[in-house]
## 1
Amino acid sequence: MPERRLMPRRIVCRELGPPERLRLETFASAPLGAEQVRVAIRAAGINFPDILMAAGDYQLKPELPFTPGVEAAGDVAEVGHAVNGVAVGDKVIVRMRHGAYADEAVVAPSQLTPLPSSFDYAEGATFLAAHGTAYHGLIDRGRLETGEVLLVHGAGGGVGLAAVEMGKQLGATVIAAASSEDKLAVAQARGADHLVLYGREPFREAVKRITDGRGADVVFDPVGGPVFEESVRCIAWGARLLVIGFTGGVGMARTNLLLIKGASVLGVRAGEAVRRDPGLGEVRLRTLLQWAEAGRIRPNVSHRIPLEDHARAMRLLIERKAIGRVALIM
């Protein structure tokens, strides 16, 4: 008898809510169009937007049902007859608006990026979202310069750790702030010059102490809430405060303090910026791949979790237990 082919699986959001409401389902493979590529996904990265999207709290609200996940890595399994430059067997990173939590995906060739030669699938699946956001924040928006002081909040998280690593590449003095000694140890290994443990001392006092009262030139903030509000009190003249996310709540700016310091508050939306100006994305991607191939940047994947344990994997981010990134393994 011929070998029975198992149907591919995916995580499906049929009702908005916490990760536990997501379902693991099988599905029939979609037919391949002439200008499409089928990728056998080996790993998918978990990002906070996935959690927010599944809860209905993200700016992008896909029609139900949908599969979460904005980034994955795997092997090209099939290529449409009108596709050039992509071959079966190529190891690739896949960029998506959603749909990555699955065994396979049908995508356009423009959504594919070669997997850096030294990366495994989990590293490839957790690379571009975090490092792309850090790049857009620090370079396109923050204009971080050599010799400036960079304060990174949530430095043990995926995007925060990427900012620590990239800040050192750009020649900044990096102050990493995080919630545990373990997270700070990884941040130090990735280049942080100074470490601040939330709860040991108010971080605004630590920044003033470290900078002899001058303050930070750039603040990279994926946390928000009180963290953002207190950051305004430890900035240098002309500082740039980068709003990356709001995992700790929405912060309110004291406009008088911004005025006194001649400071700027800048929203950072790496994906939307590329959709509006594709040229930005080309430069960013080329630079990130060069740095990755040279061994200068690399995701820290603290957990690799089977696809069927997706809720537990997502909870690691919600409960701040990940150091760097979490990957689903197919």
## 2
Amino acid sequence: MERKNIWEKYTEEDLERLEDIGKRYIEFLSTCKTERECTEEIVEQAKKAGYEDLEEIIRDGRKLKPGDKVYAVCMKKAVAMFCIGKKPLEEGMNILGAHIDSPRLDIKQNPLYEDGEMVYLDTHYYGGIKKYQWVALPLAIHGVVVKKTGETIRICVGEKEDDPVFCVSDLLIHLASEQMDKKASKVVEGENLDVLIGSRPLTGEKKKAVQANMLKLLKEEYGISEEDFISAELEVVPAGRARELGFDRSMVLSYGQDDRVCAFTSFDAMLKTEAPETTSCCLLVDKEEIGSVGATGMRSHFFENVVAEILNSMGNYSELILRRTLKNSRMLSSDVNAGFDPLYASSFEKNNASYLGYGVVFSKFTGSRGKSGSNDANAEYLAKLREIMDRNHVYFQTAELGKVDIGGGGTIAYILSLYGMEVIDCGVAVLSMHAPWEATSKADIYEAWKCYRAFLENA
């Protein structure tokens, strides 16, 4: 079975929509580089589209009815949106689920030190990265510092044109003969991914003068002390805006497209949904890159608790109805796939690889080697999705994540499948996944958006 590049199939109207979505997506990527920033932006746009905070609904004792739109936030790092449908919730929901965290460097709680009259912030990398990719490139620092008083200070340095940037230094090639003999996983050690932030000493200071100057600058600029790092969440990410890629501007190059390409298209499709027959849900969570653990990850009870609150606000809660609601739901686990890269063709099985410019990707199963850790979607569910996609003129492809014994990966799909609902992975093909800069096709982004809209309205 052969699928082809879809660019030539587009009308002028399609191309206009594609470019509009691409432009808005690039802006989203450029301003939302952490899960907190994503959540804040998503909530702001949801409010403009008429969504209300579920906490306010509960506090006011109001009842939810078909057509109502609500959202819930978990610890400022995960968000769930619901557009209440005409059918009883017990008959299930149409759910789009993506994650908004991405690989990065996290600053430790006791990070500041001086060595060789240069000052560094000690880091602990987050998620699966090739550590050598993070040296010698401009970096920005995003996050929050929360003082003992409860005051929250937002940090974002390295994104504006006149901002300073930071870096992790690398060993010069002239002295790197021993380094170059190491395995790629050892060329740069995790403990050496420390971020260089300054080298100017404080005049008159005799001991650790550069560190003293850094602390002085932090106090003057942000009102924070060294101890305030204890209650901080600061993330180091590649500096700079997302960009169009290629002379033809057919692709997007950016940090964090795994999985913000699916998060953006999911919530944007959700915002277009009005008065559905079946309740629509967009679920955007944290911590997928480290196993979906913690209070803001998919393994938490956040989603289940929110659905219980919605049922209660509709006057129809019971434990049995909650279980039926989750079991009868259908979900697209909106996550990316590895795009075929001809420079590394030996890692892919061409007939079952995803290709840039071929449309949204359905992955019946993920996992590694013997499908370990995989959700494996039912054939009946796939058949229904094929019919929906064809009827709504959505171009799609199917793929696995590389050759059988090469490796693999996972998503949040298997966690939602524990409720007994139908789940399949469905997302965008990505080149250089988990690198500081990843590449996607505008055509695939557009098809993902079309796919998610069609699913919410027809599943």
